[in-house]
Amino acid sequence: MMKVSDEGQFAPLFDPIALGGVMLSNRICMAPLTRHRSGLDGVPSDLNVEHYRQRASAGLIVTEGIYPAPMGRGYLFTPGLHTDAQELAWSKVTAAVHEAGGKIFGQIMHVGRLSDPLLLDGELPLAPSAVRPDPTARHYTVNCPRPKRPYTTPRAMTHREVLAAIDEFANCAVRARRAGFDGVELHAASGYLPMQFLSPNTNRRDDEWGGTAEKRCNFVLACVDAMIAVTSSDFVAVKIGPGWTFHDVFDDDPLSTYSHLVRALSARSIAYLQIADYGMDWDVYGSLRPLFDGPAMYCAGFTRSSAKTALQSGGADLIAFGQAFISNPDLVDRYRHGWRISRPDLATYYTQGAEGYTDYPNFADCDPRDLLPVDSAPIPISAETTG
Fold first, then answer.
1. pLDDT at position 387
2. Do 126 and 161 form a contact (C-beta atoms < 8 A)?
């Protein structure tokens, strides 16, 4: 017989927590998940509204990556937040989430050198330095809506263009606040523009934006400062993926780079720091968490049981779940009651319709034959399938 509730055993996941300027009802967060369901003009669709509304029982939703300016766009059917139409559409998303009792941060994501002239009106992508991504390196390939050709060599940003990009992040934060978001998260992981500044193989500058670890951190910190200046410190969060080589970024001494960055972020009293450990051969959480005096969100590969352990250890304050939220809109209830979880359909991760996006059923409507044990680990994903 199915137990009525596992909530007592897994109580740490369901404790409320104050985060920035909002109170979260639980510690189960929805990780940012790019799903390519917006318009080609970067305007979120009605599908986006319904998708996020369905998952509003999460303690916090962090949206898919939102490009803050035209040059930040790297994929087709992803959302932006730099036009009035995009802002209006996002306001419908946040209103739906709030009406359902949820909280939502918008993740701001500039892809930098990982874009393509076909997406940029013929312009070369911008980057800290003119270093072409290795076309054989792990990246989103088969099912991802982006030009099916090797990356081009980007154009090194001038000092003026670096300052302009910082302003674009700040302007996006202003629009996010007007659109009703509870906060924003700067995406400084996954090999995108902020991480390109952090990584020595992609940042070969010798000015104030590159060289030493401290100078390579300056772009991220300047973006954070600019966003705080136009909103508030409790409106701004940051995601980092220390040492991850995804999208061909490398750092021979990530502990040095990220120790400086995390200490500097701690001094800014941001809403939270999302730390993603993608299987590094060093203790990412144990090394960096003590350096940050604020809420920490851990991300990557967690199950209900491992999330409980991370929360009980005193390191994590929040746990972000990605794949589980794709196929389980009622994930919080499933974790609370110990109900089995639905298997995601990998083939529809990056398609453009309702299938595999808003049509996953709640537990009561599931076929039991399609369900996995509640503590199932995320399904390994081939780089040739999704990245």
1. 29
2. yes
Per cent of the chain over pLDDT 70 is 95
H or E stretch at 259: helix 254-267
8 A C-beta contact, residue 164 and residue 172: no
CA distance linking residue 358 with residue 327, whole number of Å: 9
CB 78 within 8 A of CB 167: no
Residue type (1 letter), 248? D
Query: Tokens at residue 285, please?
Result: 């959480």
Q: For the segment 360-385, what is each residue's pLDDT rounded down to a tens digit?
A: 999 999 999 889 999 998 876 543 33
Per-residue model confidence (pLDDT) at position 314: 85
Structural domain boundaries in the chain: 11-372
CATH number corresponding to 11-372: 3.20.20.70
Return all residues near 139 (Cβ < 8 A) that are at least 6 apart: 114, 133, 246, 247, 248, 383, 387
User: 187 pLDDT exceeds 90?
Assistant: yes
Q: 52, 75, 151, 192: which one is catalytic?
A: 192
pLDDT at 6: 75
DSSP 56: T
Question: Distance (Å, rounded) from C-alpha 130 to C-alpha 205?
Answer: 10
What is the distance between the alpha carbons of residues 92 and 345, in angstroms, rounded to a whole number? 27
pLDDT tens digits, residue range 188-220? 999 999 999 999 999 999 999 999 999 999 999
DSSP letter for each residue of 216-257: HTHHHHHHHHHHHHHS-GGGEEEEE-TT--TTT---S-HHHH
| Number of neighbouring beta carbons within 10 Å of residue 50 | 18
52 is catalytic: no
